[in-house]
Each structure stands twice: as C-alpha cells, then as structure tokens.
Amino acid sequence: MWPIIQIELFKIYKRPRTYIAFGAIAALILVIQMGLKIDGEAYAAFLMKDINDTLTVDGKVLNGYLICYILLQLLLVHVPLLVALIAADMLSGEANLGTLRLLFTTPYSRTQWVLAKFVAASIYTILLLIWLAFLALFVSMWVFGRDDLFLMKSNYVVLIQEQDVFWRYLGAFVFASFSLLTVAALGFLMSSLANNSIGPIVATISAIVFFTILSTLNIPLFNVVKPYLFTTHMNNWKEFFDIQVNESNDAITGSILNVAKIKNSMMVLTVHIGLFVGASVWIMKKKDILS
Amino acid sequence: MSVIKVQSLSKNFGALKAVDQLSFEVEAGQVYGFLGQNGSGKSTTIRMLLSLIHPSEGQIEIFGQSLTNNRSAILEQVGAVIERPDLYPYLTAQEHLTLFAKLRKQKISASKIEATLSQVGLLARANDKVQTYSLGMKQRLGIGIALLHDPALIILDEPTNGLDPQGIADIRQLIKSLSKDQGKTVLVSSHLLSEIEQIATHILIIHQGKKMAEGPTSSLLDPNKTIVQIKTLDDLDAKQKLMDSVYRSNILERSEGLYLSIPKLEIPALNTFLVASNIALLSLESKNSLEDYFLQLTSTY
Hints:
Chain A is mainly α. Helices cover about 65% and strands about 5% of the residues of chain A.
C-alpha cells in the first residue's frame, strides 16, 4: 500500500490549499508572539492582578512555556477547522474532480485507497501539529526564554518547575494529535458521503461546533452523552499541566494529577477514529462511482 | 477467446432500469464499438466493467475470470478512459504518468513514460500543469494514462469528446493501430456514430439499457436497405400524402424531417410517386451509414 500512500502525499504536497493551514498557523502565532513581546508585561500583570496581594512570584512569569500554553489554548480550538479543510476534501474533492474514477480503476482496492488517503491525511495533520509545536514551543522558548510555568486555573494556581515542563508539552502534543486525527477521521467520513468539496468541510466544522456546544453545556440531559462525545475529550491535553501535590502541598515533580482521565480520553478518541474511518471504508465500498 | 463476457447484466437506479439484461462477448483483438444515444446505458455498462458501479444482477468475466472475485488481477491488464478526461489540475502530464506508473506491478521506466507522452503528442507540454491544457490535450493525457502499462484490454468511453477534427483522426488512427499492430482488444463507446463505423470491427447497439443489435460491422450494414430523407416545401402535406399511400408503413417517426426506410431499388418509384402527387420536392437523399441503421433501430415507429 506504500505506493498509493506516496501518491496521496505527493498530491497533498502539490496542492496550493495545503499551505493555507501552515500559513494561517504561522501568521497567528507570530502575531500573538509579537504582541506579547511588545506588551507582554502588561498582559502578565493583568493575569496576576487577583493574586498579587497574597502571592509573590519570583522569576519570569511570561516565559516561553507560558506563551506556548496561551497559544495552545487559543489555537487547538481552531486548528481542527484547518485540518477539516484537507481531510474533508480527500474523497469528495476527488469525486468532484472526477479523478476518483481514475483511482478506483487501478488494481488497488477501494479499501486500500480509502486507508491510504486517511494515512496521508493523518501525516498531513501530524506535520501541521509539528509545525504548530515548533512555532508555539521552540520559537517561544527562543524568544521569551525559559522559566517555571505558572498557570492560573479557575480556582487554583499551578506552578511547575522549569525542568518538569518540557515533557508535559511533548505529552500534550501527542494527545493533541489524537484530537486532530479524530477531526481528520470525521472530515473523512463526511467526505465519503458527498461528491463536492464544500459540503463535507462545512459539515465537519458544523459537527465540531455542535458537539462542542453539547460538551460545554451543563444540562443534565446532555450530561448522559457527554462522556461519549469526542469534543468532550479533545481539550484534555491540559491534564498534562495539572500536577499532584504531597501532604505539605508541594508539587510532586514528574506527576500528573489525573492520568486515568488522559487514558480514558485517548481511548474514546481512538474509538472515534476507528468508527469514523471504518464507516468511511464501508460507505466507499458500497458506493457507485457516478461522478 | 472471449476477453469480455457479459451475461444478463442489469443495473437499477431506484425504479430506473439503466441496463436491462445485457449480454455480449468481446473476442481478443476486436475493436468492439459500443453504440447508443445519450442515456442509453453505455457508460453505466462500462463502469460496471471497471467495477465502478455494482451490478444489480448478472455476471461479468474478463480474461476468463470473474470480475467480482479477481478485480485486482483483471484491472492490472486493463486501461480505461471514462467519459471526460478528469485529471489533477495542479499536476503536470509528466507527474500524472509518473504517479500512475507507480500503481502497476511491472516497473515502468522513464523512457516508457516519455514514449507514451510522445505517442499522445504531449511531449512538448509534459512539464506544464494540466490546468493550462485544452480539453483535447486532457483527453490525450487520459489516453496516455490508459496506455502507459501496456494493457491487453483498453476501454475507451467517448474518447473523441472535445477533440478537434485532427485530434479525432489521430485517436481513430491510434485505436486502429492498437488493434492491428499491437493485437490489443479495444472496447470503445461513442455517440459519434460515424466514428464507431470507421473503427469498429464489431458493434453492439444499446437503447434504453437493452441490446438492440450486435454483430460484425459489415453484416450490420445491410447494403440492400436504405433510409431516404425527403425535403419538401411543405413537409406536413407531403407526409399526409405518403400516409395515404403504399409508403405508409415505410415512414419513420422523427421529431424533425421526413424519413422513409425502403429498399434501395424502390427509390426511383418513390421519386415518381412524389412528383405524381404534386409534392414540391427540394431533395431526396439516400443515407446508408451505420448512423441510419442505428436511427432505424432506436426509433419508435
């Protein structure tokens, strides 16, 4: 199947649309980093205003690790939309062009083509995430330096020592790859149902918005389904930045507060990826190629 | 040896029977013309032969093997162009052929790719993106992709679509050469009946999903019968007079024009009748091509 994965990757590489997402992420991150570089101290002071009376923080609060956290909070909500641009077009875009006929009359089976396309879309998604990580983490570390990570949660603060942060970001990015692959798989499923490019992209984005609202609303009726919605779990990369404390309320280096929650979320997301891709294969195998 | 053997093939789209109990065989080395009006079921049949559409009923055997059970092995030996030449606008002709060369078990060399580009007349534009190509150039590239792996069976659905007269002549020559010089089996469909007539050794005429006629081109063209087109100053009056005459059963129903199907030897008598009936005759033209035969078969009398 490697030859057809190579072909799919080559097509992604040659498509102008591919670079929109990379450009958009670079533009957003660089603008935010520039803003924080110029006026970051005021922003940090604003963040700290409620605790300044009770807590004194030494060192550089606005360091590369905090900038990365801020960027991920902002961007990991929007990157799925960029992933949908490519993933939701993988099958329907070819149907629209008429090239699906060319592919499906080769000796490779439809299952192989659909899986190869998903693998290619997944590689694209992961490359996008690596690009995001490079700009958000490494460029921020280079521009803003490194120090302990100080996070303001809703009703508590977390202070993670500098040497205990980097691996958490690696974990967070691995987790985020599962979230984004779920979006890619959803886009893929939508793509298998349509013969035009725009419909599946809009449908994927709409589904993400719809399920995110369901996951966010605290209504008993929705609480029953929440644990099974992929949108409930997509943002759980933040769990890597909640740390256990000992009896003296000191942070335990190298610990995560709720590992089970991360594992559960990754499992739910994996099941969703499997279901979405499996359904796509089934639909494409049954489909008459009329376009 | 049958290269293609189709038995009782049907395809339903809801209540519509696009293909209805179609059976035919294509022998090795034949140029098999698949002839039918738009919507007659040609493309649906071809798509079923290429496993793009699942048949509702019936069997397809290619190279003596069931298409359902041996799809991959069969398609390794088939090259196809299906209707429009749909390609990737952001890739060049060279890139298209290089990509599709990877899909074959046999190694396809760079020189073979270059030879194919030359064969379809695209060598000079090989590195231009397809989005800059004319429809004819895209069609030729589509044919290039179909021929790249040297398939034993070539299926061409409306291959002359969008081509200029020179392009049509080139494709016609190419198809003839593939069969005659290389011994390939070619199944070609077209609504350009004159094209099929010139290249096909055998013809199948399909209408409303059903086989109307099949056989060698030479035997389908009955030299003793012809269709006569009559042009007059008043076609309605002429038709009425013909309806009241012995020619009533010879009149062919057409949305436009006045046509009669008669033996060639009766043309002088018809001419005499028209003059004697005071019909203001502008012309009387005998049509004797496959097109006439096709029209005759697919008409509602």
